[in-house]
Every structure is written in structure tokens, then in C-alpha cells.
Amino acid sequence: MGKIVAGMASSHAFALSDPNQWDEGRQRNRQMYARRSGVEPPEHPQIAEETDEVVQARYTRIRDGFAHLRRKLEALRPDVLVFVGDDQNENFTESNLPQVAIYLGNDFIARSRDRASEPAGYRCDPELAHAILDASIDADIDMASVRSFPDDVLLAHAFGPVLRMVDPDARIPVVPVFVNAIHVPAPSARRCYHYGQVIRRAVEQLGGDKRVAVYASGGLSHFTAGYPWAHYDGPFGYGSISEDFDRAIVGKMAAGEGSTLAELTNDEIIGNGEIELRSWAAMLGAIGDTRPELLVYEPFYRGIMGMAVGSWDLQA
Questions:
Q1: Which domains, ranges and CATH numbers included, belong to the chain?
Q2: What gap in Å lies between CA 309 and CA 215, rounded to an integer?
Q3: 300 burial level (CB within 10 Å; 0-12, 13-18, 19+)
Q4: Helix-helix angle 277-287:189-204, to 10 degrees
């Protein structure tokens, strides 16, 4: 039978770049917000408290976290990486929008939407992808399937840039799983946790001894230009971070109580900037309640998000 040997999770976007690039990136994001709303948002007041020296010192924990994930994948050498992330009008739009989908192809070219980085080619594992699809349908999950992308390009910032960070040589085959985050209505945390449990079931029902790692891309709290503002009614504005909520979530995961994330309501998710937490919930469903070997969190207002990196070793 197959076996899940590790869980991993991280923020993406600004978390992947050096802090000296954040100010420029934030201005582009503010301009995107202005184009969509007609009003340019003010800068968050806590940005003034984040000096270069303080930010660089705290960001070291995030940078070291990604380095840990790279080393972990190099040491574990899993046979496949099930990679869970959201899509923000890159491959799917409201004209054709699955709540959850899986890619069944043999390979893909990863490219970010800003096209700033070189595209990278990744192999896939169609056998595991089909097993997850079959297990999902059997579990009454209406999992959509994707057999190809135009020109074989997977255009999503939640996938390509993170894969290049943690597996730069593209040595590990990937099974991309998409979970809707920015379009309302979106899956509940409980349903996403259930997705993960079904992924685990599919892995364990495989013949052979395939070793699988599950990676969640996205989060934590952030209120940026792409946030579903039309459905948000609360005190946070552009550039805010729900730090207390983030820290409560991180505390539960650190205690090995990841299943408690399944209890979050959609109102709590959207009210605290946690729309991409759905990917983490799916990963946690796949690995079950276990303490992480690494879990770091830092809120950065210059980087407009609460950044986190986590690693769970299921072999210990």
C-alpha cells in the first residue's frame, strides 16, 4: 500500500521574494486594487513600524523555513508530491469554475502569471491522480478533472513559484489539486479537511509502496487586491492582517490539533483574511493530527500578509 510520509505548507507570493522587493510589489497590488475599486487604498499604518533591519531579521525565519522544506524533500525523496493550491482567475474563471479539481496529465510547464521567472517543466503521476479522482467520486466529492492546459502551461502563482522554491530541479513528480479560495461560495474548511482524508485513503489503497508528500500553498491572513471584498463585511481594510486569529490557528497546529481547523466556519475564514487556509485544511486532513517538526509564523505589513511555513514528518 502507498503511504503519506510528510506534510508541508507555506505561504506564497510575497513570501517567496526578498523583503527589498516588497514595497514595489505592494504598490503594484495597490494599483490593482484601485483599478478594480476605483479608489487607491491607503497604506497600512503599521508599515511605518517595519524598518529594513527588523523585517530582514524576522524574514530570516521564513527564508530558513523554505530552506528546511528543500532539504526535507531532498532527504525524503518522495515518489510523488500532491500539491494543493488555489487558482486566482489564472486557469479557471467564473465561466468555468470548479470548487475542487485535479490534473490528470503526464506533465506540465509551470509559469507564474507575471511571467517574471523562467518556466519549468514538471512530471506528473497520472496513476495517483486517477486514484484520487476515483476515491473522490466514491466519497461523493464532485471532483472536476483536467486532462490538459493550453500549451501544457499551468499558469498559477500558487504552484510554479513555490515548486521552483522547494524543488528547483523538478526531481519529484507532482499531482496538482486545485481548491477554490477567492470565489464565493467556496468550500468549507470541513469539506477541505475531508478532501485531504480522501487523498490519504486513495494513497493507502494504491498497490506497491509509493511514498507521498502533501504540500499546501497559500495563506495565512491577508487582505489584498484579489480579496472577495464584495462578500466581506468587517473591520479589516486593505493590507490588514488578522494576527490574533493567525496565532490561534498556528497554536492549534503546533499542538498537533490540526483537525480543529475543520471547525472553522466560512464566515470566520472570510472575516479574517484566511481564504487560502482551505489548502492547509486539505493537507492537514491528509496527514491527521500530528505535531509539526517546524512551524514558523511572521506577520509582515510591508509584505501584506501573515507568512507561515510548516513541515510535518510522518515517518518519525
A1: 3-313 (3.40.830.10)
A2: 11
A3: buried
A4: 40
The answer to whether residues 219 and 279 touch, using CB atoms and an 8 Å cutoff, is: yes
Q: Which residues does residue 111 pair with via DSSP β-bridges, in sequence order?
A: 155
> What are the strands of the beta sheet with 3-10, ordered from one edge?
144-146, 100-103, 174-179, 80-85, 211-217, 3-10, 305-313, 294-300
Tell me 90's DSSP state: S
In one-letter notation, the amino acid at residue 264 is L
218-271 pLDDT, tens digit per residue, is 999 999 999 999 999 999 999 999 999 999 999 999 999 999 999 999 999 999
> What is the number of residues in the chain?
316
210 HSE (CA, 13 A, CB side): 23
Residue 59: name the closest of 69, 50, 46 by CA: 50
CA-CA distance, 210 to 247, in Å (whole number)? 35
Return the C-alpha cell found at 11: 505561504
**pLDDT tens, residue by residue, 275-308:** 999 999 999 999 999 999 999 999 999 999 999 9
Q: Does residue 53 have a pLDDT over 80? A: yes
d(CA 274, CA 248): 12
